[in-house]
Amino acid sequence: MIKTSTPYFWSRRHLLVAACAAGLLGASGWANAADEAPEAFIQRITNETLNTIKADKALRGGDIPKIMQLVDTQLMPHVNFRRMTALATGPAWRKATPEQQKRLQDEFKILLVRTYSGALSQINDQQVVVKPLRAGQEDKNVVVNTELRGRGDPVQFDYRLEKTPGQGAGWLIFDMNVLGVWLIENYRNQFTKEINAGGIDALIASLTARNKSNAKAS
Could you say which of 3.40.50.300, 3.30.70.260, 3.20.20.70, 3.10.450.710 is the CATH number of the domain covering 12-217? Predict the structure, then answer.
């Protein structure tokens, strides 16, 4: 069961949709990623990872350590996590020391990995349908609209992607919208409260405490 008592979590439904939509990325690595259209990128890696989970009894059974490994190794390489953390932190990020930035990024990563690990254990017959890309978008901020289909009504959700330049170029996720809630905006509201109350160190301490509590509960 996904715990939702902490303000750092979306609702259970948000998490399940996000896990199916975005927390499933990365099964096949970066082969030909530089040449892919963004919607093709999302469709390919989502389908491949859904199939991986459905074919693995341990993953379907909610083996949290194995699911955490899947998320960490197959999702995170497709996320611009530094940018995501900076955007979620807001203006305070630029004032933080390099050490504070690293600690904040590390703790935020642990929080998200464990969050998606819980959601992934609930996957059954969901499928993701990627919609045609809207014309006129720039590579630095592409929005891909998709739809989760399975039990119940279809659910709309979106990704924000950026194209990395140079050798090894490919698409990276830096935000997602599930059921009308953007991940960065959601976390920024919570992070701002912590920062206003006690600064960056207070936010780091709060995330650290939450991660320790989650680890004990799993």
Answer: 3.10.450.710
53 is written with which tokens? 């989970």
| C-alpha separations of 65 from 112, 113, 126 in Å | 14, 11, 22
Burial code (b: 16+ CB inside 10 Å, e: under 16) for 36-72 equals: bebbbbbbbbbbbbbebbeeeeebbeebeebbbebbb
Instruction: Tell me which amino acid residue 161 is.
Output: L
Query: Is the pTM of the predicted complex or chain greater than 0.70?
Result: yes
Beta pairing, strands 155-163 & 171-178: antiparallel
- The string of pLDDT tens digits covering residues 116-167 is 666 665 666 777 889 988 888 888 889 999 887 877 777 777 889 999 876 5
